[in-house]
Structure formats: C-alpha cells, structure tokens
Amino acid sequence: MKLTRRDLLKSAALLPFLTGDWRSLAAPPPLQAAAAPNVLIVLFDSFSACHASLYGYPRQTTPHLARFAERATVYHAHYAAGNFTNPGTASLLTGTYPWTHRSLQLFSPMLKAVAPHNLFAAFAEKSYHRLTYTHNLVALALLYQCIEDVDTFKKIRDLCLLDAQWADKLFFNDYDLAIWRERLFRGGEGLSTLPTSLFYFFANHAGWERKKARLNHIYREQFPRDLPRHHDQIFRLEEAVDWLTASLPDFPQPYLGYFHFSPPHDPYNTRREFVGMFDAGWTPAPKPPHFFTLGHSEESLQQLRREYDEYLAYVDAEFGRLYEFMAQAGLLDNTYLVLTSDHGEMFERGIWMHLTQTLYEPVVRIPLLIAKPGQRIREDVRTPTSAVDVMPSLLHATGQTIPTWCEGRLLPTFGDEPVDPDRSIFVVEAKANAKSAALTQATFAMVKGAYKLVHYRGYPGYENEFELYDVQQDPEELENLYTTQKDVAADLRHELVSKVDEVNRPYVRG
Questions:
Q1: What is the distance, to the nearest Å, from the Cα of residue 150 to the centroid of all Cα atoms in its chain?
Q2: 481 or 12, higher pLDDT
Q3: 175 lies in which domain range?
Q4: Digit-coded pLDDT (tens) for 452-465
C-alpha cells in the first residue's frame, strides 16, 4: 500500500509511544509552504518564568524548552497583564490592558464593546483559518465571546477523559451567560453546568465523583497523585498533544491556532516519572510574610513548590514532543510557534497560587518564546515586554493591519523601530473592584527599565501603599527601595498614578 505524505505525518505522531524516544522520529518531506505563514500559540496556564530552568531557576524543570530556545526568540522580562486567568487571557486575546477589556473578576466576561476586538477577528484580513481549544473553563468563557470569529471551535470534552459541564451543550452560543447563571445558582462554586433542579445537581455530581474515582484507579500507575484536572475536567495532556500533532497537517493553511492547556495549573498531578524528582537538592530561602499573606507555612509552601516544579517538568516533556514533531516534519519552516502563559504561580511570603492581591515576579513574569518561520539561531531579548504586545507583533509579522484599539507595541525583533528601554508596561489586579466603575480598590504594577513600582490602592488598612524594586539587581524582590530611592520612586509614582487617573476618568461621575 502506498502511503501519502499526510499518512507519514500522522504515523510520525505515534512513534514516540512505540519507541519511547521522540528523537527517533523520521522526518517526512516538508509540506509545501502556504502563501502566508501559520501561527500556532500554545499557552500553558499558570506557567511562571521564575520556575523555568531556561530562565535560571536552579531546578532543571524545562530541559526541552531549552532545546526549543536554541531556534527561537526568548523574552526574559515578559509580563502578564494580570495575575489570574481572566485578566491575563483577555489581555492576550485583545491586546488591551484589564482597565480596557474589564475582565477583572473570576469568570467575568470582557465588555461587549471590546469582545469583537479579538485575536481571531484581527486575523480575518488574510483569510486565516482560526482554531481554538482550552481545558480551562474560565478561559473557555472568554473564548466563547469570540465564537463568531472562530472557524474551528473544538469542544472542551473532546480532549477530556471526563467532563461535567452542560452549559455548552444546552446554550452553545450563550455559554458565557449560562456559566454565570450556574455560578449564581451555586454561590459561585461547583460544576459548570446548568441543572434544572437541586436534586439533579447532587445526582449528577455523585455520578461524576464515581466516574472520577474509577478513572483515577485505571490510571493510578501512570498518575499516582490522580489524573490532571481543572475544575471538573479530567484529562491527560498527552492526548491533547497527540491530537495536535496528528491534526496539524490537516489544518487549512494559513491558520491561526490558539490552544490554552491547563497544566501546570493546580492541582499538580504530574506523571509518575516526575514524582519526587526535586525532593533532594536546592531549597529556596524563605521570604518575610506580606501584609496580604494567606497564612501558609513555609513547610507547606516548599512542598507545594516541589509538586508544582514536578508538574512543570511534565508540561515541558509534552511540549518537547510537540516541538520535536513540528521540527522533524518541517512544519516550523512556515509557522510562528509561540509558547507563553496567562499568569504565573506563587509559593512565598505566606501566599500560595495566583489569586492574590500581590503582583510579585513569580505570579506575573511569564515565559514567551517565539520561533519564527525557518529560524535557526537563538535570539535573547531582555527589555521588558507585555502580553498585550503579542497580538500586534503577530499581525505585523503576517503582513496584516494592527488595529487602532490595540494597546500593545511590536515586540523587539519584530519591527525596524529601535527598542525603547524606558517604555512602561502595566499589570492590573482588580477582582475586588466593581466591573463598571473606577478602579479604586486594586493593585497596579508598572515595570520601567530595571524598576518595578507596585501600588496598593483602596484596600482597608492599606489604602495607599507602594513598593519599589530593582528587579534586575534584586529579582527576588527582597529590598523595597521606595523610601531610599526617593527621586526614582517619585517619578515612577507620578507616572503610575497619572495613568490610573487617566483610565479611571471615563468611570468617574460628575
């Protein structure tokens, strides 16, 4: 039987499971180049750059990412626009800061006027085929706001072993509204369904728990801490990577793909070979508690950090499979491959996770690596950049118009303009603030050159607090310079406060 080129590509995706070594992948002939380059964005949720060995972290968490970096552009000071999924993802999808798109709270939608200004709509100029998928229900609600601009919307359950949602079955075109009604019904917690009765909810949840226990028993040898999950979606990252590698040759070209995978978001249920790999060796020094501490002990934070690092190593290995397949198949010759995240994760100062009022580096500095079509030599960029820069840069690179509403700039190496070392970029945390009101209870960070100024505004007991760090000389943010470098602090404070006043002006009455 004569095999076609497509058959060869699909067969290549299975070889890692047959041989246990993706380096042995046979390289099929490269596909004929499309008229315009493809764009593939791979986002891993809660991926902190501060935990990646690629960026200098002492534990070897990302060896495969380091291989990818040798033929990519590596951004070393790249910042999310927020510190959890809603503001971080919405800023990446719209190229605007949270004070513009207003996805400020958990499950909070973008403003209706902003939602049409999204990544997928922007890529319509050259007839890109636009595809998306996510494991994350929070990100899913945002993606549903873009549904009219997406050609292939792969449902969440397609790459899950078990899911418990009904909102997208019953209300596919109104998913964001349905999921909000469900949260109101249950007090903001629980499964993402829209049950018709309280009895149905408990019956459905009990059945889901039984199925979950059965799946965890089946996969116990492979995942001793239970299977990966996000909310009530249970999955294996391997299946998502398998589907992507098998499907890439079939995507209509040129394509824009946005794939938002849940790991390494908690719970940190890593694969067996990564369990315990960081139990010995380096341990970070404790940091003093913050006034927004959540009260976690140093011992518990260290254990959670080890488990997160083990989960990150699992993510790295699976991305390594995807990267190796694309490299061997010649798919990188006509594709921008982007790896990034929506926010980071935190294990210090008594604080765990990312749902915090603080904006320290582990929770807002995220990876950004972009392999340009045919790139063979590594480039390193150390100038601060923002998630809002990704959309305009990819549009420019593919010869499309950058919309006037986009608040980002071209990333260094994506344009001919000289890099501005004194550019200011911003991060916003405002989940306690009303959606359609001035930002009066929020945390703001402004990164400018070597400095990062953090402003806590309107919190009871901490109405007007500031912190200033030299994040180049003091990346651990141990020395608050706000009272010692008064001239620098005054200049940065004036700029940041003026910016906040500017964005608040449309919401101030009278």
A1: 19
A2: 481
A3: 162-226
A4: 999 999 999 999 99
Same domain, 205 and 306: no
Q: Is the distance from CB of 453 to CB of 468 less than 8 angstroms?
A: yes
Min mean pLDDT across 14-18, 299-303, 502-506 is at 14-18
CATH number of 324's domain: 3.40.720.10
Question: Backbone phi, then psi, for 447, in 5-degree steps?
Answer: -105, 125
The span from the first CA to the last CA of the chain, in angstroms, equals 77
Closest by Cα among 111, 16, 106, 312 to 97: 111
Longest dimension (CA), the chain: 77
Verify that 276 and 146 share a domain, yes or no: yes
CA distance 2 to 87: 50
**Into how many domains does the chain fold?**
2
For residues 493 and 472, give the distance between their C-alpha atoms in angstroms, rounded to a whole number.
19
> Regarding predicted confidence, which is higher, 189 or 354?
354
**Residue 439 included in any domain:** no
> Is 299 a domain residue?
yes
User: For residue range 430-452, what is the model confidence (pLDDT) as tens digits?
Assistant: 999 999 999 999 999 999 999 99
State how far the Cα of 56 lies from the Cα of 387, in Å rounded to an integer.
21
Assess if residue 444 is contained within a domain.
no
Same domain, 153 and 182: no
Same-domain check for residues 267 and 122: yes
DSSP annotation string for 38-105: EEEEEEETT--GGG-GGGT-SS---HHHHHHHTTSEEESSEE-SSSSHHHHHHHHHHSS-HHHH---S
Structure-block tokens of residue 391: 């959309």
More confident position, 31 or 175: 175
Predicted confidence at residue 202, as pLDDT, reads: 56
> What are the tens digits of pLDDT across the range 372-421?
999 999 999 999 999 999 999 999 999 999 999 999 999 999 998 888 98
In terms of domains, do 150 and 213 share one? no
Q: Is the same domain home to 261 and 139?
A: yes
Q: If pLDDT is split at 50, 70 and 90, which confidence band does 171 have?
A: low
Above 50 in pLDDT, residue 32?
Answer: no
Alpha carbon distance 145, 481 (integer Å):
42
Token pair of 346 as six digits? 């935190």
Six token digits for residue 432:
């306690």
SS (H, E, C) 204-269: HHHHHHHHHHHHHHHCCCCCCCCCCEECCEECCHHHHHHHHHHHHHHCCCCEEEEEEECCCCCCCC
Same domain, 85 and 172: no
> What is the total residue count of the chain?
510
Considering the domain boundaries, does residue 327 fall inside one? yes
Shared-domain flag, residues 153 and 15: yes
Residue located via tokens 């589907």: 243
Q: Helix, strand, or coil here: 371?
A: strand
What pLDDT, on the 0 to 100 scale, is given for residue 174? 59
Closest CA to 248 of 372, 317, 334: 334
Q: Which of 424, 459, 477 is the last residue of a domain?
A: 424
The token pair that represents 281 in the structure block: 């060796």
